[in-house]
Amino acid sequence: MTVQESLEAYAGIDLAIAKKKRLPVVVVVRRAGRLEPLALNARGAPKPPCGCGNARIVDVENRRRLAAETVTYLTSIERHFGVHIVRIAIDAPSAPCPGRSDAARGPKPRSNKKKSTSSRTRVALRST
Fold first, then answer.
1. pLDDT per residue over 40-75, tens digit each?
2. Domain total for the chain?
3. Bridge partners, residue 87, by sequence
4. pLDDT score for 114
5. Which residue in 18, 66, 70, 77 has the fewest CB atoms around it within 10 Å?
6. Is residue 67 part of a domain?
7. Rounded to 5 degrees, what are φ and ψ at 112?
8. Strands 7-14 and 25-31
């Protein structure tokens, strides 16, 4: 089946990069006016790449490797299911902190806002 004869497909990737966890991917095709997911977890279907963890993904080479593995995976999905992926949606962090993981950043800074007192505390303060 050539690319022109194959069914158009759409892929969605949640950029979850937990260590040794498979990349969450969905590929759908339009049939009878509905989007239907392909059975990517079926026996014999190619397996998505595994993440290397949040701490390591900030490294450029690790990101390039994961991207290349993902392209290879999606290409193998096209061949296996006889589809042609025409669009890919990626759910990823908009601005990861270069060189540091969430754990390495430590706790979030405290707000400088003055905490309001509860209504019970205000009543108690007024009555004294």
1. 999 999 999 998 887 888 889 998 999 999 999 999
2. 1
3. 10
4. 52
5. 18
6. yes
7. -85, 0
8. antiparallel
